[in-house]
Every structure is written in structure tokens, then in C-alpha cells.
Design a protein that fits this description.
single chain, mainly beta
């Protein structure tokens, strides 16, 4: 992320934010409005360390709780984290949240291999509202689908979060 984009104030009703397993990136869509919002990605979505075993999934909830299904074994040395975005803007501003749909996001490894990310969830869920001080934090979780015998390594990718003023 360039230093020019982090924490930028905008006068646009639609913000697209992309978060990666290792870092966050912000992009803007050019639409004008009277309201303004400032955002900062404060934590990336991470699924932590795990052993693929016979395959299954790893889920991170918006609260940061981690769970697994199938033969995936979670390792305590890498707990994972929900993505977090801090918003600052017009007090009491209401907005809607659009999360990625299933089949649109995957994490990949530089040496080859990928895993699909599905079932994105957020807190707040479909809509949010900045408080009387103009502040709000959005927390995002998702499910990583792990293949049997998935090759260990660092997998990265991006997802897009859309915020629309209501």
C-alpha cells in the first residue's frame, strides 16, 4: 500500500477495499457525494497456521474466533485474525456493506497451488452506521477451503469490500 492511500479522506459514497492475507490495499471508485469518509485497514484477514491433513476448512469469524472442519488441524503457533477496517466520517452516516460472493476469491502460493475463500461475513453485517463521533470498525471473517494434502507455505490473495452510503 502506498503511503498516499492509507488513511486518505475522500468525498465519495463508494469505497472499495481489498484485504490480503499479509497486507491490505485500498482503491476508490469515482462517484461524488456530499459526505466524506476516512478509512484505515488496521488488520489483515489471516487464517493462521494449520495442517491440511485429509482436507476440510478453516474459518475465522468476524470476532476472530478460529475453527476447522474435516481433517484440518489448527496449530496454536499461528492463531489467525479477522480483517479490520476503521472508518471515520460524517457522524451517524449509514452505509451498506457488500462482501465477496463465493467463487470469486482464492489464496495462492508463489510456488503453485491455491485455496478458495468463501462464506465471507462481517460485523456489522449488511448495514452499518458511524456513531455520533463519526467512527465505526468493520470486522470481516471468512472460510478457507483446504484440499487434502495441501502444500504448506504462504498463501496470499485479495478480496474486495464495497461500502455504499445509504
Amino acid at each position: 500500500m502506498s503511503g498516499d492511500e492509507r488513511g486518505s479522506a475522500i468525498d465519495k459514497p463508494r469505497v472499495a477495499a481489498a484485504c490480503v492475507a499479509a497486507f491490505c490495499l485500498i482503491a476508490l471508485e469515482a462517484v461524488s457525494a456530499a459526505n466524506s469518509i476516512t478509512w484505515n485497514p488496521t488488520q489483515a484477514l489471516g487464517f493462521g497456521k494449520f495442517a491440511a491433513g485429509s482436507g476440510g476448512s478453516v474459518t475465522i469469524s468476524p470476532t476472530g474466533a478460529r475453527s476447522s472442519t474435516g481433517g484440518v488441524a489448527l496449530l496454536s503457533s499461528g492463531p489467525g485474525s479477522a480483517a479490520q477496517f476503521s472508518l471515520t466520517g460524517t457522524p451517524s452516516l449509514a452505509y451498506s456493506i457488500t462482501l465477496p460472493t463465493n467463487g470469486t476469491v482464492a489464496l495462492s502460493r508463489a510456488q503453485g497451488g491455491s485455496m478458495a475463500v468463501t462464506q465471507f461475513t462481517s460485523t456489522p453485517s449488511a448495514t452499518g452506521q458511524l456513531n455520533a463521533s463519526g467512527l465505526q470498525v468493520i470486522y470481516i471473517g471468512a472460510t478457507l477451503n483446504v484440499s487434502a494434502g495441501a502444500v504448506p507455505g504462504s498463501y496470499t490473495g485479495t478480496f474486495e469490500l464495497m461500502l455504499d452510503y445509504n
